[in-house]
Structure formats: C-alpha cells, structure tokens
Amino acid sequence: MTIRGYKNSDFEKLVKIYDLAKPDEFSGENAKFKIIPLKNDDQMLKLFKDSNLYVYEEKTILGFAGHKGNYISWLFVHPEHRGLKIGQLLIKHILTKLKGNVGLNVADSNLAAKKLYISLGFIIEKQFEGKYQDTPIKVNRMEIII
Questions:
Q1: Which of 68, 122, 141, 144 qualifies as a cystine partner to 117, CB 3.0-4.6 A?
Q2: What's the pTM?
C-alpha cells in the first residue's frame, strides 16, 4: 500500500474512479441526477487542477483525495474497494499536511461519508441548502481542528 502525490500520468485512472464513484455521493437523495463525467465538468476540472491530490495505490490506484488550502476537496474510492479503510487512510494522510481549522462539505444524505468523517473527529458545524444541477440538497459543513 502506498499513498503518494498525484502525477499527471494518474489522470485517466482518477477520472475512472471519479466517474464510477460520484453517483454514490447522491444515492440518498430523492432527486435523480445525471452525473457529468469529470472530463466534461469544467467546474470540477478546475477544482481538480487547483487541489493538492494524493492517490492510494496497491498495484493500481484504488482511490484518491485532495485539498485546496484547508478545505478537503476530494475523496473518491473505487466502488469495488470500499470498506477497506482506504478513504480513512487518505483523509488521515491529508490531515498530516494541514494545520488549524480543516473543513469539508458533504451531502447530508451521504451517510457513509458523514460516518467516516465523524469517526476521524470532524463535527458538523452547520447545515445549509446547496444545489447540485439546480436541485436543492442539504449540505453539512464539517470541520476539525488540527
């Protein structure tokens, strides 16, 4: 197992993981969303390029995470490799790189992600209404102080 910094040659593998895993982010929502592939989502591609990214690798890349400043902007694990603590290891790795107040946003309906973040010491600071594809969703702002 290796967690290492992102290389440009990782891009295609990370795109595949994102495209496979992104639908699960909203699986608890009543609305059904058409997920835009990462390569076609200009807003997400900009965030991708602006983030410090790390990959989890065991012979091949199984997940990735990233941050932009003290904001955790990415956490995606290949659906076939969930439940192996890959997400936990990636977030712990990022937290070793940061100091102070670290935050992230997560859909309120994304129970698995909220459970993971709470297990790592994040608390829900506030709940607000966000939008995804012009559809309102409840979002939790979660934070931890390092």
A1: 122
A2: 0.94
